[in-house]
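B., you asked whether I could sanity-check this one before it goes into the benchmark set. Here's the sequence:
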Amino acid sequence: MRRRDLLALTTGAACGLAGCADSRFERLQSERPDIDGSSDDADRRGSESAGSDAIVVGDPAAVPFLEAHPPHEVILRNDDETERTVDVVVSADDADGSDPIDGDGEDERDEPLLERDLDLGVGEERPIVLVEPRSYTVTVTSRRDGGTGESTVTDGIGRRPFDCTRSRTTVTLSESGTETESTSSSIPCPVPEVTDASLAVGDRACAGRTDGDDATVEFENERVLVEGSIRIPTPCHTLELADATYHETRDLLAVNVAVGKQEAETCIDCLGAADYEARVDLEGRYPAQVAVFHATGDQRQQIATAEYDAE
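And here's what the prediction gave me:
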């Protein structure tokens, strides 16, 4: 995964980072102050004096497996001997190169997630919490009291620091200039756990010449979805989800769909095909891989594999 660092970068355990990041974000989740990223220009572009509360960019409820994806903190710190006015712009970098369009047909590629003026007193700091796992560009323009001595710094924050890592970027304003330092500290990754699994059987009919076994896998809303088609001895045979098991040594979720019994005493004499959708609900995080197997009697074959791509 790509990471752009246009300023000095150091990697290591930040003093107090593990505790501070967690406690601050737990408080933010309950109080939810200054939620940004909405369509309200007044909220995004307004000016306010710096306070003790962090500015949250993004919605924690929209982040799958929040425990495995701690937010990234950007700390603005004024070490100068005079008050500073700081203009902060946070933009998202589209990893897939797509052109997002809003409901009015407007192109939102250049629309910032946050654009705000802050007043930082002497010795004051203001945290900005980037919640959603994605790539960001943060631009900070600072001016001393009276509008003099303007300077601008830009920092790129990549997608990877959000994955089982607590990370922080500190922008320090001082008389000698502006310094940026990034620190990170790994945390134990949760182990995926299957909490529920179900199978919905769709159409069953005589198989055509081109009908065969296939399956596709999607990672969505803290679950794995498998849509597939399987050949069955007759159109009257049912299907069952034999099991959905996570294998920790391979970081793999195995989904096994099996042909069940014939439901009717008599059935049309033809080879059948059945569509299905399997749903596997998870806790912890997504597995690195998913493998889908089809079983008929004692015969079992692997039909599809998919790797989880955080981008």
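One thing to flag: The first helix runs from residue 17 to 31. Otherwise nothing jumped out at me.
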